[in-house]
Amino acid sequence: MRLGVDIGGTKTDVVAVHGGAIVARHRAASGRGAEAVVGSTVAAVRTLMDETAIEWPDVESVGVGVPGSVVDGVVSYALNLGIDRLDLAGELERVWGKRPVVDNDVNAAALGAWALRKGGSSLAYLNLGTGLASGIILDGKLWRGARGAAGEIGHISIDPAGPVDADGLPGAIEVYASGGGLVRQWGIEGAAARDVLDAADAGDARALAIRDRLFYGLASAVRVLVLTLDVESIVVGGGLTGQGHRLIEGATSVLDGWASASSFLASLDLAGRMSLLDDPDIPVAALGAATLEEAKPTSALLEEHRG
After folding, report:
1. Which residues contact 250 (CB under 8 A, 6 or more apart)?
2. Cα(first)–Cα(last) distance of the chain, in Å?
3. Sign of the CA dihedral running 249, 251, 255, 260
4. Which tens digit of pLDDT belongs to each residue from 119-176?
5. What's the pTM value of the predicted model, to 2 decimals?
6. Which residues contact 137 (CB under 8 A, 6 or more apart)?
7. 103, HSE (Cβ side, Cα atoms, 13 Å)
8. How many CA atoms lie within 13 A of 219 on its CB side?
9. Distance CA 16, CA 50 (A)
10. From CA 122, how far away is CA 139, in angstroms rounded?
11. What is the bridge-based pairing of β-strands 11-18 and 21-29?
């Protein structure tokens, strides 16, 4: 039995996985701030174990996906959770008596998407959630980069005169194609991304412009991933995929426009590599987190990261 935990900006998803299949699941609200995040994670895991009569001796491993940069179980710069720095693996080990493998949540989701696709040698999982980032599988292995920042393409600016994101960078992909970015552009206190998209459906001109920028941001993310990594496929997941095929069609229109102007981009079939997650109801990040024990960096890589 393996446990997988996905700590998101608003919810924490816990699954028990046996033989590669999810046998139990529990969802609960996430905490904000280091102490609250640890507390809500412990409570969510305890509830799942109580509901299924799983005991710690039954658990082979625990994996935890969390926003932010993660090196050797230490989480930093997780803005959506109000965390500057937290030794999450250490804090959870003190409670559980078992050290979890902790990694970036989108890395975990990439592993989950990889397990579901079962084919090819490379994949990028592009998460359009509260923020925007991608997890990357190259040659069948999770690629974290030299300092754990691989896939943080939301911080790439695609327009120096564009809207400013939460990090203060103008025109970053994340402000175009994330829930937090849509709300930031909308500028109405207490609003959610759904409110912006509903206003666009109702014909509001400003909301329609924001939605057009969403399509442009997604297309730009696909272009960046293909031109830098040449991955075989890009799986799009996260809360904004509630727009369904309209989201893909909007981004495809942008990509097709670029392809019509550039024979090189046309040859890369950018739009053809992009697809929605096959089943949005599968907790892909929690499923991937349950496999993190097998995908964790070697001790040599950890020493390099610490250096």
Report:
1. 211, 212, 214, 215, 218
2. 34
3. positive
4. 788 999 999 988 899 999 999 999 988 877 899 999 999 999 999 988 888 999 999 9
5. 0.89
6. 110, 111, 114, 122, 123, 124, 125, 143, 231
7. 32
8. 22
9. 12
10. 6
11. antiparallel
State pLDDT tens for residues 32-83. Answer: 999 999 999 999 999 999 999 999 999 999 999 998 888 899 999 888 899 9
**Burial of 57 from C-beta contacts in 10 A (0-12 / 13-18 / 19+):** exposed
User: Which amino acid, 11?
Assistant: K
CB 196, CB 183: distance < 8 Å: yes
